[in-house]
């Protein structure tokens, strides 16, 4: 695709996936992390909500973005490997993780590109063979304790801590609906939970934190005010100026001078 706005990859039960980026660069905003993916760095993800975002490096994406996803399901794993995933209680420490695309994974990607460009060559047997090859390469790249434990852990997301999700995404210019998706709550439940945890409405609390961060940046660096406004997550300079002035009783430029 030539360009895209923030795009949700929504939760699907019992689905894990891997993403290769063949061209360009893309950001991934998860409940607790922000990752950058490109030709050298792929991503493995469990079943949860996260967002794809345009890369902050516009030069890398001037010719668009191309990616390939590999999707895995417990029924598929059982079919390919004859494993009982329920027999393992192993968990790993990530929900979404960057993976270095080494020589073997890169060779696999190239073989997939050939099949995508020539679909008439593909049948069910070949797809299963390629999926089995991919899973084995992935297990090897992750130094998993065992094939069974690694595959079982792919379908066991780690618990998402509400407070941590908010703190990690304060300056991302996310709407209440988007933040609710990252916490896996409805928007109304999210607002109630936010009030319980922070004793304040989402809009008031997050705006306050953005302004406080902006004030620190105005004192500590020489970036333009417009750059600071976007860095702390305001969607326009006018909105930033209005909220900053209301809080400090002086404009950002006057605040910097004093």
Report on the architecture of this protein.
The protein has 258 residues and is of the alpha+beta class. The protein folds into 2 domains: 7-153, Jelly Rolls; 162-257, Homeodomain-like (Arc Repressor Mutant, subunit A, Orthogonal Bundle). It is 46% helix and 16% strand. The protein contains 11 helices and 8 strands. The strands form 2 sheets. It has a 4-stranded antiparallel beta sheet with strand order 1-6-3-4, with no helix packed on it. The protein has a 4-stranded antiparallel beta sheet with strand order 7-2-5-8. The mean pLDDT is 91.
Topology pattern, helix = H, strand = E? EEEEEEEHEHHHHHHHHHH
> CATH top level of the largest domain?
Mainly Beta
- Give me the number of helical elements: 11
CATH architecture of the largest domain: Sandwich
Note the beta-strand portion.
Answer: 15-25%
Largest sheet: 4 strands, antiparallel
What is the domain total for the residues? 2
Rg, nearest Å: 22 Å
Quaternary class:
single chain
Average pLDDT, all residues: 91
Low-confidence stretches: none
CATH topology (fold) name of the largest domain:
Jelly Rolls
Helicity, in percent?
40-55%
Strand order of the largest sheet: 1-6-3-4
* General shape: elongated
Distance between the termini: 46 Å
Structural class, from helix and strand content?
Answer: alpha+beta
* Structure summary, number of beta strands: 8
Any chance you could write out the topology, listing elements then pairs?
Elements (H helix, E strand, L loop, with lengths): L6 E3 L6 E8 L2 E4 L4 E4 L3 E5 L4 E5 L11 E7 L1 H8 L14 E5 L2 H15 L6 H19 L4 H7 L8 H7 L7 H7 L4 H12 L3 H19 L4 H7 L5 H12 L3 H6 L1
Antiparallel strand pairs: 1-6, 2-5, 2-7, 3-4, 3-6, 5-8
Helix pairs in contact: 2-3, 6-7
């Amino acid at each position: 695709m030539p360009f895209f706005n923030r795009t949700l990859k929504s939760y699907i039960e019992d689905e894990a996936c891997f993403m290769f980026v063949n061209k360009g660069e893309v950001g991934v905003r998860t409940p607790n992390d922000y990752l950058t993916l490109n030709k050298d760095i792929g991503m493995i993800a469990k079943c949860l909500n996260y967002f794809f975002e345009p890369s902050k490096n516009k030069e890398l994406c001037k010719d668009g973005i191309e990616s390939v996803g590999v999707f895995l399901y417990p029924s598929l794993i059982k079919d390919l490997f004859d494993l009982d995933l329920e027999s393992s209680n192993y968990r790993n420490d990530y929900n979404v993780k960057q993976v270095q695309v080494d020589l073997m994974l890169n060779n696999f990607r190239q073989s997939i590109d050939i099949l995508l460009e020539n679909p008439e060559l593909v049948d069910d047997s070949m797809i299963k063979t390629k999926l089995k090859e991919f899973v084995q390469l992935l297990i090897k790249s992750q130094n998993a304790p065992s094939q069974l434990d690694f595959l079982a852990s792919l379908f066991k997301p780690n618990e998402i801590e509400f407070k941590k999700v908010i703190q990690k995404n304060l300056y991302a210019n996310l709407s209440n609906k988007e933040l609710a998706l990252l916490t896996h709550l409805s928007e109304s439940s999210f607002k109630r939970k936010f009030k319980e945890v922070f004793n304040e409405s989402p809009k008031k609390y997050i705006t306050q934190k953005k302004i406080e961060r902006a004030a620190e940046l105005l004192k500590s660096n020489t970036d333009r005010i417009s750059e600071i406004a976007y860095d702390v997550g305001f969607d326009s300079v006018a909105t930033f100026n209005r909220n900053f002035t209301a809080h400090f009783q002086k404009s950002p430029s006057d605040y910097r001078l004093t």
